[in-house]
Structure formats: C-alpha cells, structure tokens
Amino acid sequence: MAPGLTSATPPPLSSGRELEDISDQIDAINVLLSSPTPTATTATTEDSNPKSNFRQYVSASPQVKALYREQHEKQTVEYNLAARKAFHSNVRARMGIWEAMEKLNTLIDESDPDTSLSQIQHLLQTAEAMRRDGKPKWMQVTGLIHDLGKLLFFFGAQGQWDVVGDTFPGGPCSPLLGCAFDPRIILSESFSQNPDSKHPIYSTEMGIYAPHCGLDNLLLSWGHDEYLYHVVKDQSSLPDEALAMIRYHSFYPWHREGAYRRFMNQKDWQMLEAVKEFNPYDLYSKSDAPPVVGELKVVSFMTDHSLTGGGGCAQSYYIELIDEFFPKKVLDW
Question: Which residues make up the binding site for Fe cation (predicted)?
C-alpha cells in the first residue's frame, strides 16, 4: 500500500447523497463568486460585494467549511504522489463511457424526494446546452463526461475531501519539490495545518518550478477532475482544449482569480480561454429546466434502459458522439 494514501483503518465514507449535497453547495459558492458585481442601480448595500456574500454563505454552511479545512490539511505532496502511484498501479474497473454514466447515476437514490436532478440529467443538461449553442462535438462530449471523475467515490476515496472541492497546485512532480499555497484559494487560512506549508522548499513562491514552466508540469490536488483527466488523456481522441476543460474547470484560483500566472506558458493562455468558455455550462446550466425525459426519449438508465417511442434519439446521438471520441470503447478506470 502506498504511504499516505490510506490509513490502517480508513474513516467511514459519507453517503453518495452527502457527497452530492456538498458538491452542490460548492457549486453554489462558485456561482456566487463567478457572478459579476451588481451595479449601483441594482444592488443593495448588503449584496454589492460578492466576496462578502461568500463569507456569509460559508458561515451558514459548516459542511463546506469543514470540507475545505479537511481538504487543505490533507492534500499534501506525499498524499498526491501516493494517489498517482495507486492510479497507475491498479485498474479499478473496465467500462465504457455510457456504462460509467450509469454507475455514477447510482451515487444518489433517485427515490430520494430531496433529489431534484440525477447525475445523468446534469451531464445531459450540460451537453444539451452546448449542443443548443452550436458548440463543437468534442466540447459536447466533454460536457457529457465532465463529472465522471466522481466515480472515485466508489474506488477507494478516503472521504469527500479527495473527490470534490476546488483544485489547487499541491506540490511538484517529484517528492523533493513543491510551491506555496496561494492566498486566493478559498479558505486559504486552513492551509496552516498542512505540513507542506512549513516545508523549506514547498512553502516558497516558486518552489521547484521555473517561471512559465507550464501548468502541465504542476501537481494539482487529487480529486474528481484530476482523476478523470488521467483516465481519458490517453484513452480518447479529445483535443487539448477538452482535456484542459476537464482538468482545470475546478481550478478557480487560476481561471477566476488570476493566480499562478507565473507558471503559465503560451499554450496555457489558450487553454485558459477554453476553460472560461466551458465553466458557465457547468455552473449555470443547473439553473435551466432539467432535461425532460419524454423529450429526450430516454427513460430509466439505471434499470432496464427502456426507451420511449421515437427510437431513443438522444441516447443514440450521444452514443455516436462517445464512439467518435472514445474509439477504445471500454476504458480502464
């Protein structure tokens, strides 16, 4: 067992319902922080500062606060290196993209009356919004799969903190190197309990990195985005922009707050524009009307895969899209 990855007695995992609840709360925070500051004619004194609203939200959301505290304390260089070693040493499952979507859909019991949107509905909702706006097929399929990294919940995650939450650079590509945590990371004060914050190399501004070395050379915190990126980068024909959307869409300190520009190379500036184009579909499509089952000609994905009259247009469209960009059909997870 790789050091730092699991304890002798792993803590009990939360339920899928709890995981998705905390993920939704994190998305709500990022919607708030991504919204433009209201104008003087439309804003009240209380709501004119999104950062102030964010502080109020976190104060009223102890689950979010606790998640970030645990994530910031435990996402160390040692843990990240161990997680990657475990990823490359084991195949957790072998399945196609649609099968993976169906498995992710079991994360929440759809009979739960508090569940308003299933996993497949959100994935279809994101892809359909892109399709409606005439985005290229590779971007539509990226929207369709972008949350599949949450399958980590089934594959040995220690808790919520190593599945969901914002992404940040947690260290280097070797155990001797690292860089300082940026104060623009949400609740960055909680990094004070992370051992790497006191490391003589990891805690410096540049650490081991050379200026403009490229984000590809940063070790980002392990979670559902980073996991999915490693799954698909060598098992698909997705372009670099799609891979950047998958890997960096939760990297809010970079694409929203302007942090880590010192590490960017020319390619990263192009990828930044791609990620900025993607993120509104992830965050704001959730406020659109959910996909109507009848209109999409898709019934239960979790049970008998039956289709209503019309021949299953939506399913066959996305199956064809998946086949185009995932010629391997069955992927190693």
Answer: 122, 146-147, 224, 249, 282
What are the structure tokens assigned to 47, written together? 């709501």
Tell whether 21 is in a known binding site. no
Contact 263, 216 (CB under 8 A): no
Residue 131's Cβ-side half-sphere holds a number of Cα atoms within 13 Å equal to 15
Q: Is residue 55 marked as binding?
A: yes
Give 143-163 pLDDT, tens digit per residue: 999 999 989 888 877 766 555
As beta bridge partners, residue 94 has 332
Query: Which tens digit of pLDDT belongs to each residue from 2-31?
Result: 333 333 333 444 555 566 665 666 666 666
- Known binder of ligand: residue 72? no
Closest to 151 in 3D by CA, of 88, 219, 231: 231
Is 249 marked as binding a ligand? yes
Is 0.85 surpassed by the pTM of this model?
Answer: no
Q: Is 150 annotated as a binding residue?
A: yes
- Which has more confidence, 322 or 310? 322
Kindly list the distances between the CA atom of residue 89 and the CA atoms of 86, 113, 188, in Å, as whole numbers in the listed order: 5, 40, 32
> Has 134 been labeled as part of a binding site?
no
Tokens for 230?
A: 């490693």
**Is residue 110 a known part of a binding site?**
yes
What is the residue type of 169?
A: P
State the amino acid at position 196 in one-letter form.
D
Residue 14 marked as a ligand binder: no
Is 147 flagged in the annotation as binding? yes
165 assigned ligand-binding residue? yes
